[in-house]
Amino acid sequence: MTFLAIDIGNTRLKWGLYDAPQPGATLLAHGAAFLETIDTLADTDWKALPAPTAMLGCAVAGDVVRRRAEEQLEIWDLEPRWVVPTAQDCGVINGYEHPNRLGADRWAALIGARQRALATGSRRPALIVMVGTAVTVDAIDADGRFLGGLILPGFGLMLRALEMGTAGLKVPTGDVVDFPKNTSDALMSGGAAALAGAIERQHRRLVQVTGASALLLMTGGAAVKLAPLVHPPFEIVDSLIFEGLLALQAQR
């Protein structure tokens, strides 16, 4: 009863093969491919995998990319299934004005965060931060209600916006430091500080609104860049979206 979880973001396709379609399942294999190279997955990364019995994915990169991924899944007798956010699922209540317009990856991450909190016996609110091409900062209360969230440009988008809108800022990527002394470091540190400030502000607001200590979970490929600047205690959970997909599949 192996299960394939797929997360198609704006830059990469991430996948994980689990030994069962349920929370707590063991990860057997995993990988990632840039969207430009996903047309080779059937002949490379997936070629030697045991055939999954089911799959569930979330895709935010558009229908064309999703169909390219489905073509690669044809190596197995497998029906592609994709997450569509609903008003309520797996103990999470979707507070978006139009629930189905919430990003599928954000919805899966919220469900993963809720499952993680319940597994530890914790009924605390949580702030879920995904750091990728874009950065999302989403909040749920202790009862699993999605209160809302922010969408911000990620590191790369910030740097490209500055390069396009100003003169003389086409410089190599710098480092995140407290007091930058060159333009490269100033650009990277400024973007990181802006993101960290948004996260810390939302964390404070969540604590104020709920009156409880809030979990802070971070995920995404660029989370390690941002983590040193965020001061509230946090946990990096690389598999958060996959954990949500496992919960959704188990319920179905």
TrEMBL record:
**What does the UniProt entry say about where the protein is found?**
Cytoplasm
Q: Would you say which domain of life the source belongs to?
A: Bacteria
Q: Which GO terms describe its molecular function?
A: ATP binding; pantothenate kinase activity
Recorded hits in Pfam families, A to Z, give: Pan_kinase
Q: Where does substrate bind?
A: Y96, G103, A104, D105, R106, T183
Per its record, the protein catalyses:
(R)-pantothenate + ATP = (R)-4'-phosphopantothenate + ADP + H(+)
GO biological process terms, alphabetically, are:
coenzyme A biosynthetic process
Q: Which residues form the active site?
A: D105
UniProt key word Cytoplasm:
yes
List the pathway annotation.
Cofactor biosynthesis; coenzyme A biosynthesis; CoA from (R)-pantothenate: step 1/5
Q: Which residues cross the membrane?
A: none
Major subcellular location class: cytoplasm
- The positions annotated for binding ATP are D7, I8, G9, N10, T11, R12, L13, K14, T133
Keyword terms = ATP-binding, Coenzyme A biosynthesis, Cytoplasm, Kinase, Nucleotide-binding, Potassium, Transferase
**Names of required cofactors:** NH4(+); K(+)
Q: Which InterPro entries match?
A: ATPase_NBD, Type_III_PanK
What does the record note on quaternary structure? Homodimer.
Under the heading NCBIfam families, the entry gives: baf
Q: What is this protein called?
A: Type III pantothenate kinase
